[in-house]
């Protein structure tokens, strides 16, 4: 048995390195004539000569199998000098494997000169075969079976006309041969692709709705400096380059990119419109409907470009980012359906199956783009997951099952270098990574209540709610310190940190209420859930206080500020409606608390009523008016002697409240929670995981500090 030498595989004279395999045959290349690239080509057939193609090592193959090839070469050097027949056989197998990894074929076919490779074509029948796995504890048979299963799955997907989403961003597969242009161009971060398409404005109702390039440039730069931290779905340098190309040439990578552009502008205008300070700084001359018009233009672009069919990362980014404004424009239902579409589009692209690559130094241009594209996929998927899991209480369901995706959290890194940093170092990804950890509790919270058609007994449900409360507090306690308390040195180079701290405090308090939402109404109707009642009331007080501080500081508006303010208003109004109920014993200081609740609600009403272009704020005002009116009817009644008393009503007529609210706003999206009836017994947290300080105020202040404007903004 002949012993194949390693040199026959690796010698540059035999197999040079190239970016792609030659499609033209050797004979046509040597004669410098055009080859039709068929196998064999027509010229060689007519001449009756052998038609061969040069065997080369592609740069992508060398890069993605470099570690395995190095290991195999070191192994071959150890056994290569042995004359033992079994060692020779093993050496031959290793050489064949190296050749396969480098050339995509075995050595025997290379040595015979029969280089009839399968032609690389853009045909939709090209199968995106997965890269061979590294040597591991699995046997070759198991690896082969696994790869075969994947290939069969790919074939079936192609037969159905669907893409197999398991190899994003498609640097290590042949997906480019059958995936759409709209998808592949949206993934690419190569500047050479940024000005690839002439933009057709037929999809936009009017060019007049677009701000001038000068104004748009200021808005985009402001968004990157002050708002990108809240969603983290764009790579700022890449997006800025794309915008510059668009401003100078009118061209963009793809028409669907315009949806992303409009989404950024719409959310930015909404965030700064009600801030006198920032409107003056940006010198904006816009009306309160500008954000809505840009949002509607984004929707027009999506549908005119058939976004459901033409899969694109730009579409997903535009939809996810539009959440920053959709709810406040009164389009929560539209946002929900678009978000569901974005989830399925993301799964079609494979954003849920992004696996980490082996660590290696990022220096070649190709490696940088792959790293960047993978990181962008992670960021977008992370935000999709957060929005889906935090929205579960609207439908009592979620779409993304935590067991059915592989994609890890994005790196804690900044855009300029994508270098992972410690969690205690603030980056543009810090806030979203923190929210993702909080959101991860929500599917477990919902599942723990039992199937929707057969809920667990109330005792078990409440036990689970209390355990989820405990887990949430533990996660909040692990939040990076710079998101809890101000550090002046960090504030100087991260101008968004102050607002991020206030926003996170509001969000954390809202999620505590969300966890207790299944028992929110019951906690007011009975005395069995005092912990839920006191916790939710204290969390609501915290939200309204922080919201008032942001308003006084005249800072940027985030959509969650108004939205969670409405939740807090609802909770405090329930406390007022049920304040005299027999299930709550009077304690010293109640009168002062009630006065404080009224003050907070009235402060919130005043600040919400001043907001322009914010339907969520308008509905918050109407909610306050409706519920305070019900409080007056319930608590101040006239007896037969015309004396006023504070006799509590036997219950709150929520149907009447809804009717009154709808009389002012026909499209209410207020969720009053579920009335579970009046169970006979409540539970004590100490029964499950030991004594715990149940005072929300004490716990929250220990974690987030006092919450004074000076302390939070680093002043």
Automatic annotation (TrEMBL):
<dbReference type="Pfam" id="PF00172">
    <property type="entry name" value="Zn_clus"/>
</dbReference>
<dbReference type="GO" id="GO:0003677">
    <property type="term" value="F:DNA binding"/>
</dbReference>
<protein>
    <recommendedName>
        <fullName>Zn(2)-C6 fungal-type domain-containing protein</fullName>
    </recommendedName>
</protein>
<dbReference type="GO" id="GO:0006351">
    <property type="term" value="P:DNA-templated transcription"/>
</dbReference>
<dbReference type="Pfam" id="PF04082">
    <property type="entry name" value="Fungal_trans"/>
</dbReference>
<dbReference type="GO" id="GO:0005634">
    <property type="term" value="C:nucleus"/>
</dbReference>
<feature type="compositionally biased region" description="Low complexity">
    <location>
        <begin position="121"/>
        <end position="134"/>
    </location>
</feature>
<feature type="region of interest" description="Disordered">
    <location>
        <begin position="112"/>
        <end position="146"/>
    </location>
</feature>
<dbReference type="GO" id="GO:0000981">
    <property type="term" value="F:DNA-binding transcription factor activity, RNA polymerase II-specific"/>
</dbReference>
<dbReference type="InterPro" id="IPR036864">
    <property type="entry name" value="Zn2-C6_fun-type_DNA-bd_sf"/>
</dbReference>
<dbReference type="InterPro" id="IPR050613">
    <property type="entry name" value="Sec_Metabolite_Reg"/>
</dbReference>
<dbReference type="InterPro" id="IPR001138">
    <property type="entry name" value="Zn2Cys6_DnaBD"/>
</dbReference>
<keyword id="KW-0479">Metal-binding</keyword>
<keyword id="KW-0539">Nucleus</keyword>
<dbReference type="GO" id="GO:0008270">
    <property type="term" value="F:zinc ion binding"/>
</dbReference>
<dbReference type="InterPro" id="IPR007219">
    <property type="entry name" value="XnlR_reg_dom"/>
</dbReference>
<feature type="domain" description="Zn(2)-C6 fungal-type">
    <location>
        <begin position="24"/>
        <end position="53"/>
    </location>
</feature>
